[in-house]
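Page 37, continued from 36.
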């Protein structure tokens, strides 16, 4: 009778434990990533049982995990909610120890420092910074880092290549100041004069680039120093009163005529005598057609830098392109110093840009200007064309070297010179492309099925920043369950293996989704009824035993 009572007591204890398991399952029926636990009953026999003698030993309740059971994946609206589809666990750190923890609960948020953590807990999501995954560390949680989105909160790329597509109006050539002369054949020809202001010297003098171009492209020019030139250009410096300070010839990128006294005449190759009557004062008083536009680039810090470019019609389908010191986006503040072909600081430099008679680009030639008495030559790119080189920036960015493409010689794929038919002609910038990227702040993230975390910035750039790790175990049901749907490795579970999601049998990652609890409430209610009946039955055994003891005691009195 004692054995029967003991067995009944063990049944009450076991059914109470089973009821606790059922209660806990029902309490976590809505818990993300929760794995339902079942109760397994094991029979107990008295050590004295043998043959026909069978004293009851009772029963023992053992909790049984089913961690490998996959819960339903439900969509959410948060991009940091993650669900694993298949075998494996997210790897977590408590931030205080070297020990790793594991979970199927993917309800992640970001803290004030940008770290992704399991919502409502102190556990942080772990992954490999992009590019740090190697065979040597693929199974070592020490190789993982907290997934921190703010550590990649900026992205910028300096401009190195710039391509311009625009039309310079052919009508602008008609505004060039000109002088007529009669050639040796008795025909009337013209020389075209234009100028562009290139800045101010450190002493306050003004600098100009003056161009002389024959209207007949077969004619060459000579000024007594330079001969056989298709265009003569002069760097002219004047004081505040307009008096000539210095003049340097710059045609063909060399110093031609130089001195403080201007040449009084220019000799065309088809003329028997020098052309006179055009004074330099007249040249500098006639501005002709000129227009300015900005070429927008980005420095190494991602700051927008605009290079003002002035286009001045020079006659004979030729223009002078003058680049000045870069400014901010408003154009009101100078942000850097240009560098000439020698890498020396300068305020501006110029190029001669010529077109064929059909409006296609013909040639680009660097010119020299006088900067405080020193000739400064425009820098060129690898192809001998335009380059935007900067000596220094006010924001401390690295020196810039931007190769500018104005198109292919003989083609209309860049700069062109066509008649626009406009009363007031303007330069039409069709388009420009450049490979720089401005500074950008993090705007969103996305996580692929392979666990690759991709950051998108306000500048439109996307960068892969982390690779999530998925841990697998030989026996997942041997893991030790902790609070917050978190597990810990044990000797029963075996050692972890780190995997890239979707590889080596590991689960894939679903973004904006969570794995539901595996609790089936209908099953739990059914088990509860069975548990209740078994508990009542065991209590009846005790009640019956009590009655039998009372009867026995009465019999012996």
């Amino acid at each position: 009778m004692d054995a029967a009572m003991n067995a009944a007591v063990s049944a009450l204890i076991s059914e109470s434990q089973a009821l606790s398991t059922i209660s806990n399952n029902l309490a976590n029926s809505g818990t993300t990533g929760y794995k339902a636990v079942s109760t397994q009953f094991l029979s107990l026999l008295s050590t004295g049982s043998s043959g026909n003698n069978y004293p009851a030993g009772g029963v023992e309740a053992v909790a049984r995990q089913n961690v490998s059971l996959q819960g339903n994946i439900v969509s959410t609206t948060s991009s940091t909610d993650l669900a694993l589809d298949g075998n494996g666990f997210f790897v977590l750190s408590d931030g205080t120890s070297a020990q790793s923890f594991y979970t199927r609960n993917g309800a992640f948020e970001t803290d004030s420092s940008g770290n992704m953590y399991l919502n409502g807990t102190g556990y942080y999501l772990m992954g490999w910074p992009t590019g740090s995954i190697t065979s040597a560390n693929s199974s070592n949680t020490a190789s993982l880092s907290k997934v921190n989105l703010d550590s990649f909160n900026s992205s910028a790329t300096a401009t190195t290549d710039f391509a311009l597509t625009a039309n310079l109006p052919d009508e602008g050539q008609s505004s060039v100041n000109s002088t007529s002369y009669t050639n040796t054949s008795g025909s009337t020809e013209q020389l075209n004069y234009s100028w562009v202001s290139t800045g101010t010297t450190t002493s306050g003098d003004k600098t100009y680039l003056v161009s002389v171009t024959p209207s007949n492209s077969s004619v060459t020019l000579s000024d007594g120093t330079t001969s056989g030139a298709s265009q003569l250009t002069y760097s002219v410096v004047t004081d505040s009163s307009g008096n000539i300070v210095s003049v340097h010839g710059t045609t063909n990128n060399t110093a031609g005529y130089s001195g403080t006294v201007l040449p009084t005449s220019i000799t065309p190759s088809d003329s028997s005598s020098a052309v006179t009557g055009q004074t330099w004062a007249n040249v500098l008083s006639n501005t002709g057609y000129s227009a300015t536009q900005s070429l927008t680039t980005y420095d190494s810090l991602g700051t927008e830098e605009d290079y003002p470019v002035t286009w001045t019609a020079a006659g004979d389908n030729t223009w002078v392109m003058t680049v000045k010191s870069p400014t901010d986006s408003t154009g009101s503040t100078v942000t850097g110093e240009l560098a000439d072909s020698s890498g020396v600081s300068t305020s501006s430099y110029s190029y001669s840009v010529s077109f064929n008679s059909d409006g296609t680009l013909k040639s680009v030639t660097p010119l020299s200007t006088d900067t405080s008495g020193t000739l400064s030559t425009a820098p060129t790119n690898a192809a001998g064309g335009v380059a935007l080189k900067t000596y220094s920036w006010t924001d401390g960015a690295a020196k810039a070297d931007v190769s500018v493409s104005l198109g292919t010689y003989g083609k209309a794929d860049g700069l062109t010179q066509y008649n626009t038919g406009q009363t007031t002609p303007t330069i039409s910038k069709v388009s420009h492309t450049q490979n720089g990227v401005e500074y950008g702040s993090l705007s969103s993230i996305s996580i692929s099925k392979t666990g690759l975390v991709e950051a998108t910035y306000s500048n439109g750039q996307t960068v892969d920043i982390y690779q999530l790790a998925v841990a697998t175990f030989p026996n997942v049901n041997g893991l030790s369950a902790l609070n917050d749907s978190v597990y810990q490795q044990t000797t029963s579970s075996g050692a972890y293996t780190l995997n890239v999601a979707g590889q080596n049998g590991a689960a894939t990652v679903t973004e904006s989704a969570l794995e539901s609890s595996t609790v089936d409430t209908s099953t739990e209610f059914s088990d509860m009824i069975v548990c209740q009946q078994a508990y009542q039955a065991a209590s009846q055994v005790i009640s019956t035993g009590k009655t039998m003891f009372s009867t026995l005691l009465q019999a012996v009195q």
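The chain has three domains: 2-59+521-555, 73-154+469-515, 171-378. Flag for discussion at group meeting. The mean pLDDT is 85.
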